[in-house]
Amino acid sequence: MKLARTRSTAAAVTAVLAAMSLATACNREGSDSVGAGSDKPAIGIDLPRSDSDFWNSYAQYLEKGIKSDGVNALPRSNSQNDVTKLVANVQVFQNTGAKAVVMAPQDTGAIASTLGTLSAKKIPVVSVDTRPDSGDVYMVVRADNRAYGTKACEYLGKQLGGEGKVAEFQGALDSINGRDRSEAFAQCMKTKFPKIKVFELPTEWKGDVASAKLQSLLAQHPDLNGIYMQAGGVFLQPTLALLEQKKLLKPAGQEGHITIISNDGIPQEFDAIRKGQIDATISQPADLYAKYALYYAQAAVDGKTFKPGATDHDSTIVKIPGGLEDQLPAPLVTKENVDDKSLWGNNVG
What we know:
Blueprint: H1 10-27, E1 42-47, H2 53-69, E2 77-78, H3 83-95, E3 98-103, H4 112-120, E4 125-128, E5 139-143, H5 145-159, E6 164-170, H6 176-192, E7 196-202, H7 207-220, E8 226-229, H8 232-245, E9 259-264, H9 267-275, E10 280-283, H10 286-301, E11 309-310, E12 316-320, E13 323-328, E14 332-333
Parallel strand pairs: 1-2, 1-3, 3-4, 4-5, 5-13, 6-7, 6-8, 8-9, 9-10
Antiparallel strand pairs: 10-14, 11-12, 12-13
């Protein structure tokens, strides 16, 4: 493959020590290593959560890649959106011989000490979808999340004619993804569409929180005419259920339709676009996340190096503090291209 080459807190640490004996029993996914055998260096892979259709799709793609590429993967763990569990799971990987670790830390500010430990032991890390706030990584496999916020803003602004009221389901702001999407969306709205009133609704990436806050907002502003969901995998179904309950789920083109744009690109979003329930999503490449997470983990144990520049897979590697980031493409999906077979959401399953 041709490429351009060349606050974990004290409480978290204490919890890790207490949890070590339980980590394997409580957090392992039960998947056996399916690689080619012990002749290949072992790779530890932690899944970040299982309550999101996006991340479940990512997990499926990982399993396919592990089998097809003969990756010597240790039994997968799932940190369940809990940094303490992630720290414990990584310790298990160290104890069982991992030579590289793939993770997707959801709290990007609390993983620094773990990254420091791995770096000291010369165990390279590939971070998927999220970029740790500090600490060394071999490679971050991620799309440009600021572009997500900007694309969502521009789409909504155009569809609403530059005026109206928009609810924004913000992801957790202790995550760089939540911050990037929120900051870019806010900046774009302020600059390009100052007549649109944005209601920022922090959600911690939780669908029930988003639904409850949307219900309260609709009671105060029944004339809401736009929604930006930063993660369709957790927000889509609760949002559609609430709008249907309130008889506000009107198809696109009909009077009273609430224009909705999402992020993720899961099949359920595509179905909702086809039905006119939502208008667009930005396809976050779950398939490419899995593919290049495994690729870079294997490259790391093989001693390969990379440098900033264009790749052969329509992405760009950029320099970041503590390492490099491969910024993968994430296209806007609307009714015009929702049936495109190249979109992963049309191929998963």
